[in-house]
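Possible race condition, two jobs.
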Amino acid sequence: REVAQEENAFVLCTLRTRTAQRRAMSDDDEALFEFARRGKLAGVQELLGREVKPDAFLAYDGSSALVIAARGGHGQVVRLLLERRAALDVHTDDGSSVLVHAVSGGSAEAVLAVLEAKADPNEENEDGLTPLILAGEKGGVDVAKLLVEAKADIAQTAEDWGSALDAAMAAGNDELAAYLSACGATPAGKQGGERKVAAGEQWGYDAFDGEKDY
C-alpha cells in the first residue's frame, strides 16, 4: 500500500509540474507545437523566426514539437527543428526517444534527419522496444536500411515483440523480413504474451484538431 501511495504521489507531482509549465507557456509556444504536429512548415518557420523556442511546449505525454513532428512523419519540419537546436534527448512518458517516434511516423526523411543528429539507433524505451524492432512491424524497408546502416543491432529483442525479424514476420512484412535475413538476422522466437502498445499509439493527438485554428 505504501508503494502504491508513493507512486500515486509521484504521478500527481508530475501532473502538477506539467500543469504549471503549461500555464507559463505562451500562445506562440503552443502554436509552434500545433504547426509541427500538422506538418505546416511555413508556420513553424515563421514562429522560429520570431524566436519562439522549439522545446517550450510539451504535451501531456511529454512530447515536444520535435517528437510530434517526427511521429507525424513530417521530415522537413523535423530537420528544421533540429537545425534550430530542438532537444534530441527528450523522451515521452513510455521512455520512447525521438527516433522511435520517427520510425513510428514512417518517414525515411525524418528518420535520416534524427540519425544525422546523432540519435542512438539502439536506445530502448521502457518496454525494451528499439527503433529497428518497431520498424520491423511497420514494414518500411527504407527506414530499416537507414537504421541498419547506422549500426542498429539486428539481434536485439524485446519482450512480447522478439527481434526486428520476428516483428516483421509476425506483421507479414515479407520484403522487410527478407532484407533483415539477408543482413544476417535470424528469428529469436517471439516472447509469450500480447505485445505492449507501441510508442505514441495510446495518444490520440488528432483529437486536438479543431480546438484552435492556427
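Job #2 (started ~2 s after job #1):
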Amino acid sequence: MSVNTNWLWNPEDLENTPSVRAGISIEEENDLRKEGVRVIKEIGKSINLKTNPTLATASVFFHRFYMFNTFADYPPRMMALACLFLAGKVEETPKKCRDLVQIAIDKYPMHFSGNNSMDELILLERILLQTIRFDVHVEHPTNAWTFINDSLATNLCLLWEPEVIAISMLYMSFKMERIGESPEGEDKMGEDAEWWNTYVQNLTVPMMENICHKVLDCLEVLDNIRYETSYSI
C-alpha cells in the first residue's frame, strides 16, 4: 500500500485495506468508518467542540489510522474517542481524558465502561500517534458550506487534497442552487467554463461529480440511519 507525504491513497488501496484483508467487506468497513465519525461528532458537540477544526481533524485521524490497522483489532468507538482526545490537543481545544470518557459512558453505556477506559484511551492515543508517525498537521477544505461536514463521514480525505474536495462541494452547491444556468436552463458551469482551474489544475467535471456522488450516497445512508433511530423503540 502506497502513501505519500500528503496522506493520499489510490482508490485501489481503499479496496485492499488491512480490514478488508482481514475479512471485513468494503461495505462493512465504510459503515464502521461512518460510525466512528458519528461518535466523534456526537461526543464532540456534547462538549461544545466545533467541527472546524477539531472534529474535522479527529475524523481525518480516524480515517488515516484504519489505513494501517483493522477494525477487528481496534473497535471504532474507542478509537474515535482517542482521535478526538488527540485532535483537541492539536487544535488547542483540549479536553480532559476523564471528561471525554464520562461523556462516552453516558452516551454509549453498552460500549464504554469506567473501569479501564481512561488507561485504554491514553494507550490508544499513543498508538494513534505512532501510526500517523506523529504527523498531526491536517489541512481541511473550507468555505464549501455544510457539504464539507458531510464529506467527513466518507474516506474522501484519503483520496483527494482538501482543495479538490472544497471545489467539488462548491460545484455541487452551485448545481443544487442552479447557479450558473442561463434563463433558458443552459448550463454555463460545464467543461467550457472550467472556473475551478483558477484554484485547482487538471480537475474535470467527471472527477468532481464522482466526489459529489460519494457524499450524496453517504448522506442517503445517514438519513436512513437517523430515520430508523428516530422510530426505533
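Confidence is low (pLDDT under 50) at residues 225-233.
Logs attached separately.
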